[in-house]
Design goal:
single chain; 370 residues; alpha/beta; Rossmann fold; Immunoglobulin-like; 6-stranded parallel beta sheet; 4-stranded antiparallel beta sheet; globular; carbohydrate metabolism; CBM2/CBM3_carb-bd_dom_sf
Length: 370
C-alpha cells in the first residue's frame, strides 16, 4: 500500500503583527489559512497480481516440487503478474520460485471441511485461483467418494464466500500404489470417475470449476518414489498437466494482469460412445460455448480411458501425443460458436482386448470472437 506523508500546515507557525497566535486569528476569521500547493494525483496504476493458492496435502506441499516447475513454466510463458499464496512457506526443491502454498501433509479433505479449516487460510491469502489436488489421504483411509465430493462442495462454497469470482482447478488425483494399501488404486479410479460430473454441476460462468486430469499417463512405478508421492519425473508430469489450464485461468481472471477488456470465454466438451466393435469404438464429442460472448475457435484435449487411442477424427484436426492424449482443434468452418451454441466432431479409437465401456476425460479451451 502506498503511504503519503501529510504536509505540515504552514499556518501553525504564523503569528500576527499584534502578537496574537495565528490559531486565534483563524478562529476569529481574521486570517485565512495559507495556501498549499496541491500534489498532482497519482495516475499510475499497476494491475494487481493474480493470486494462486496451491491447495492439498503432502503431494502439494511436502515439498511439492511440481509447484516450482509450474511457477517457472508460467514465468517463461510471460505470466509474470502472478503470486503463489498460502500460509505455508517454501519447502526446498532447489529451484527459484514463489513457494507459498496450502499443502498440509497428512490432511484429509473431509477433515478440512468438517473442521472448517479453509476460511482462515482464505482470509489470510485472498486467492483469485485455487489449484486443488486434495483427497489422497481420504482414499487411503477408505472414505467413500460421496463424502469426499461433499467436502469439495463445502470447500467450494467457502472459496466463493471469500471471492465470488473464484476460479478453481480440481485434479483427478494421480494414481496410488503403496505396498500397504492394496485397495487404494481402485479407490482413486472410483473417485476420479465422479469428479467431472461434480465439476460440471458446480461450475458457473462467474466461478468456473475446471477438471485437470492428473491420472492419465502417470505411472506409480516410474513417477513416484513410494507409490504415492511424485519423484522428479512425476513432478514434471504434474506441472505439465496443470500449466495449460492454469495459464488460461490467469488470462481470464477479472482484474488480472491481462487486458481488462478481454472477455472471459469458456467451453465444455462432452464425450458420448456411439458404437463398439472388436478392437475399437466410435464416439462423438460435443463442444458447447458456455460463455456470454462468441467463440472464434476451440481446442479439446481428450484423454481416452483404459488404454484406448484416437486414430481418426472428422469435423476436427487431430494431434496425438506419445502418451495417447489427443488434441482436437476445430476444422475452421465449425470454430465460430455463438453463446450457448454447440458443434460436434466424431472419432474412432482403437482399444485393447477386454477394454471397459468407452470413456474419456475432456478439457475445452476457446478463443474469443472478433
Amino acid at each position: 500500500m502506498r503511504h503519503t506523508r501529510r504536509p505540515r500546515l504552514p499556518g501553525s507557525r504564523i503569528r500576527s503583527s499584534l502578537g496574537l497566535p495565528a490559531a486565534l486569528l483563524l478562529s476569529l476569521g481574521l486570517l485565512a489559512p495559507a495556501a498549499t500547493a496541491a500534489s498532482p494525483p497519482d495516475t499510475t496504476t499497476a494491475a494487481d497480481p493474480v493470486r494462486i493458492m496451491p491447495l492439498g496435502d503432502s503431494i502439494t506441499g511436502s515439498p511439492g516440487c511440481w509447484r516450482a516447475l509450474l511457477w517457472n513454466r508460467l514465468q517463461d510463458a510471460g505470466h509474470t503478474g502472478i503470486d503463489f499464496v498460502g500460509t505455508l512457506p517454501p519447502q526446498g526443491c532447489g529451484v527459484a520460485h514463489d513457494g507459498d502454498n496450502e499443502g498440509h501433509g497428512g490432511e484429509l479433505v473431509t477433515d478440512a471441511a468438517s473442521r472448517n479449516l479453509l476460511p482462515a487460510r482464505l482470509a489470510a491469502t485472498r486467492p483469485d485461483i485455487v489449484v486443488m489436488h486434495f483427497g489422497t489421504n481420504d482414499v487411503w483411509s477408505d472414505v467413500a467418494p460421496d463424502r469426499i465430493l461433499a467436502a469439495y462442495d463445502t470447500l467450494l462454497a467457502q472459496m466463493r464466500e471469500s471471492n465470488p469470482d473464484m476460479r478453481v482447478l480440481v485434479a483427478q488425483l494421480i494414481p496410488m500404489g503403496p505396498a500397504t494399501c492394496a485397495g487404494c488404486g481402485r479407490r482413486v479410479v472410483d473417485l476420479n470417475a465422479r469428479i467431472p460430473a461434480w465439476a460440471a454441476g458446480a461450475s458457473t460462468d462467474r466461478s468456473p470449476v475446471v477438471v485437470v486430469d492428473q491420472w492419465t499417463g502417470f505411472d506409480t512405478a516410474t513417477d513416484t518414489y513410494d507409490g504415492v508421492h511424485p519423484d522428479a519425473d512425476g513432478d514434471e508430469k504434474i506441472a505439465a498437466r496443470w500449466f495449460p489450464a492454469l495459464a488460461a485461468q490467469v488470462e481470464n481472471t477479472p482484474g488480472g494482469p491481462g487486458d481488462p477488456g478481454d472477455p472471459v470465454v469458456t467451453c465444455t466438451a462432452s464425450f458420448r460412445s456411439v458404437s463398439v466393435r472388436q478392437g475399437g469404438h466410435q464416439a462423438e464429442v460435443t463442444v458447447r460455448n458456455t460463455s456470454a460472448v462468441p467463440v472464434r475457435g476451440w481446442t479439446v484435449t481428450l484423454r481416452p480411458a483404459d488404454g484406448a487411442r484416437v486414430t481418426q477424427v472428422w469435423n476436427g484436426a487431430l494431434t496425438t501425443a506419445a502418451d495417447g492424449v489427443a488434441t482436437v482443434s476445430d476444422a475452421g468452418w465449425n470454430g465460430s460458436l455463438a453463446p450457448g451454441a454447440s458443434t460436434a466432431f466424431g472419432l474412432i479409437a482403437t482399444t485393447t482386448a477386454g477394454s471397459a465401456v468407452p470413456a474419456a476425460t475432456t478439457d475445452c479451451a476457446a478463443a474469443p470472437g472478433a
